[in-house]
Design goal:
about 270 residues; mainly beta; eight-stranded antiparallel beta barrel; about 10% helix; about 45% strand
Amino acid sequence: MKKTLSLLLVTLLLISLFPILADEEEITSRPIDGFEGSWIQTNAAGDPWELDLKPDGTGTMKNSSQEIPITWKAEIMLDDIIMVDIQDIDGDYFEVLWYKDGVLEGEDKRNFERPQPDFLIEEDYAAAIPATLADFEGVWELTGGVVSVKEPPMTIEISTADINQMAGGQMPPPIYIGIKNGKLMGRLGNIYMVDPALSCTYTGKAIYVTRRGVPITAGYFYVSPGVIHLTGSNPNPDIINYCIFTFYRTELQMIPEGSKSWNFLPKEP
């Protein structure tokens, strides 16, 4: 049961906090994975384009009247900026997109973002109160959590030291997240980035976070000024009733660098 609890807590944190993938044996930092999948043009005056980027470097660029086979790749350029270049199979068409703050921006100012989920099951979290996007903005520090276990019935308070122990020493405190424009921030080089594998959806009381390929939805719920709770769908309802993490707003403008697990997060100026 202890191992199951540890995996649940670590998985929920990893899907929600930063671009790290985890399994039972290892935690590895992979800050630029996740561009694969759909990207939808969000600033189209008329018919929007959609990019479908496949893991093998192929894909399509399409709208309601055209579909162009493409190849693509993402590269880290000078000054730690990510460039995604796209070209058609015949080599007649070439486009460069720049990735920042969760958006792929073309040189012609077309913006592509991850599509919102077709549907989102909003968790009924009684402590949540209505909040604007501005209420979520800033840098937040994880201070601990509470876990309710079914058998034997008990409620366990966990500290950030406990979380680090469950993560095999890869998450030493202090642990921070950054939220900007309703998206969770990470870092690549010295610029703010958003993990391209994460999708963030703001609903008025929460920011819901999902990661492609991981069947867990995490919710950041605004519960009072300067306090948010992180909880999510429970993959082990026979063992655990719920798990809640608490974050407090800090005065930081950027996320200070911590352990090697956090080396890609923004440094404090």
